[in-house]
Write a structure and sequence with these properties.
Layout: E1 18-21, H1 35-43, E2 64-75, E3 78-86, E4 97-98, E5 101-103, H2 111-123, E6 130-135, E7 139-140, E8 145-154, E9 167-174, H3 175-178, E10 185-191, E11 194-200, E12 203-204, E13 209-210, E14 215-216, E15 221-222, H4 226-240
Parallel strand pairs: 2-8
Antiparallel strand pairs: 1-10, 2-3, 2-5, 3-4, 3-9, 6-8, 7-8, 10-11, 12-15, 13-14
Length: 241
């Protein structure tokens, strides 16, 4: 007889000890992080295996199909990844760093449409700026979401309009930073006889001047972890293969 998973206790992932840093692994070469190289990689993918497919379950419910957009913004200094910080009032994963995305609804034609719709609703990024490259394998979260990451290039010129009910903040992280495992940290948490392990990729935004004030904005650290970090780790494996 199947047993129900034990509910995961409330905890601050920043306070869970780091068990290792993967600085012994190679970074993805910069020549693979160009729009042309990424397009070719998705058109003719090499043999590879995702590193993280299934998190330990901590809720007992039917699986829910979901999709996220992995938006790679074309900037002068190289591609960057657009991420969001979820609003604190959300019922699940509040305050966490995430890709824009959510559940696949009945009216969505497929996971691509779902990812694009959710991105429009969450941050106001219009479809005309987005060029979908392909998909990564489904990532099963501990909360029973079966998430398909949809990877896309995003042209400059867009203006974001975050939905305050869902998104507290939107920001970008250089793709090269995230594709360097020297920034991939491992964590381990034991509870009720079970174990949960995950990656984190903390990113500190560079200081920048506040317009009109003559002062610099405080440095902000974004704690990328859990499912978002797991999908980025799979993206790393895909690009390094």
């Amino acid at each position: 007889m199947a047993t129900s998973p034990t509910l995961l206790p409330s905890f601050d992932p920043r306070r869970v000890p780091v068990t290792g840093v993967d600085d012994h692994l190679p970074a993805v070469p910069l020549d693979r992080l160009t729009p042309a190289a990424l397009r070719h990689r998705f058109e003719a993918p090499p043999p590879w295996q995702p590193e993280v497919r299934q998190e330990p379950l901590f809720v007992d419910r039917a699986p829910v199909d979901a999709a996220v957009l992995v938006p790679l913004v074309l900037r002068a200094g190289g591609l960057s990844v657009l991420l969001t910080e979820r609003a604190l009032g959300l019922s699940s994963h509040s305050g966490q760093v995430a890709f824009p995305g959510g559940k696949v609804e009945a009216g969505d034609g497929d996971v691509v449409h779902a990812a694009l719709r959710e991105t429009r609703e969450e941050v106001g990024l219009a479809d005309r700026f987005i060029d979908v490259l392909g998909q990564l394998p489904v990532y099963a979260t501990g909360s029973q979401f079966l998430v398909t990451p949809v990877v896309a290039l995003v042209r400059e010129g867009f203006v974001l309009h975050p939905n305050a009910d869902e998104v507290a903040h939107a920001f970008e992280v250089p793709l090269a930073f995230l594709m360097n495992p020297a920034h991939h940290r491992r964590h381990r948490l034991e509870w009720a006889g079970g174990v949960r392990e995950w990656f984190s990729m903390p990113y500190r935004e560079p200081a920048h001047a506040v317009p009109g004030s003559g002062e610099s904005a405080p440095v902000t650290e974004h704690f990328i972890w859990g499912a978002t970090a797991g999908m980025l780790r799979n993206f790393y494996r895909f690009l390094l293969a």
